[in-house]
Amino acid sequence: MTLSLYIARRFAMTVGQVFLVFFGILMLIDMIEQLRKFSGKGAGLGDAFHLSILNVPETLYRILPLIFVMGSIAMFLSLARSSELVVVRAAGRSGLRFLATPVVVATLIGLMAVAVLNPMVAATSRAYDDLSARYAADGSSVLSVSDAGLWLRQGGSYGQTVIQAGRANFDGTELTRVTFLTFGEQGLPVTRIETTSAKLVKGAWILSGARVWNLNADNPELSVKSWPDGTRLPTDLTPERIRDSFGTPSAVPVWQLPNYIKDLEQAGFSARAYRLWFQMELAQPLLLTAMVLVAAGFTMRHTRAGKTGIRVLYAILAGFALFFLRNFAQALGDSGQIPVSLAAWSPPLAAVMLALGLLLHLEDG
Questions:
Q1: Could you give the dihedral angle defined by the CA atoms of residues 327, 68, 304 and 1, in that order, rounded to the nearest 10 degrees?
Q2: Where are the beta strands (DSSP E) in the chain?
Q3: Are 315 and 294 in contact (CB under 8 A)?
Q4: 178-188 pLDDT, tens digit each
Q5: Could you tell me if 239 and 173 are in contact, meaning their C-beta atoms sit under 8 angstroms apart?
Q6: Mind giving me the DSSP string for 119-179?
Q7: pLDDT digits (tens, 9 = 90+) for 113-139
Q8: Cα–Cα distance for residue pair 140/81, rounded to 1 Å
Q9: pTM of structure
């Protein structure tokens, strides 16, 4: 028990040190990028630091598997150089039994990352998007999906307009049961338009079955008018801007993803990318475990055996290969080339089995 606690502490400390090193490097790089991006918008060093502290957690979370493989390599090399691995084996504990503790710790950290770190990263990502949009002040559209359907916001010389639709096609260019609410300069609603359908073309919405209320009238119900089918309502929205307004699946906390996926599909949009991200988050602890096993397969040998640098290089290359294989599988799953479950679970499962095969060959072969 004492040995297991010692190994667990060494592993957690080493991974934590690698995490802090990456955090420092990414903070410096991101601060320089934020200063370059927003220096013309009046952002100073303090503003760049604020933006970076909100933006860097998402990058760190994405490269967490690489942090684990490098932390594992560092720990196994340290134990090998101090001959502690030799002592452990001499005490009667095999290499596979020794690995049980780092694997358990990696799995626990992975579960904590998904349950706790994921919502925190989602919150900081949304805060960064809001803050950077304020600095950019580009008036970009905002889209959200809820139980009430689809919500859009558009802006322009004609003012701000909030759009609510009961349903939409997959890219948000054809809406049904639509309400347009236009706001004046004072921030008060001035016009309400209800249509049975609206289709987005270049620079306008084509309305069908439109009825218009003048909300500035003494009695808006008496001011209602019907517009002929084909009436054009100006807009600055494009299909690309609507699609980009969704943001990334990582901006939604993992606990909210099932309901968000349900709302998205009820609104008529494809939720494949969000389903894939949800499955990948569930597979995250297994991926971190695979990284530990991959590192152990190449570096858990005594340094007197020689070729330490080559084995470290192989371990790093194997970790990066697994990381990019996971991203490649994600791209295939996102495009519908392979099933979502296969894209999320096959890379970590394959890595675990291959690493275990290598360890069995080296330890007991």
A1: -140
A2: 142-146, 149-154, 160-168, 174-183, 189-201, 204-208, 210-214, 225-227, 231-234
A3: yes
A4: 999 888 877 78
A5: yes
A6: HHHHHHHHHHHHHHHHHHT----EEEEETTEEEEEE-STT-EEEEEEEEE-TTSSEEEEEE
A7: 999 999 999 888 888 877 776 766 544
A8: 56
A9: 0.73
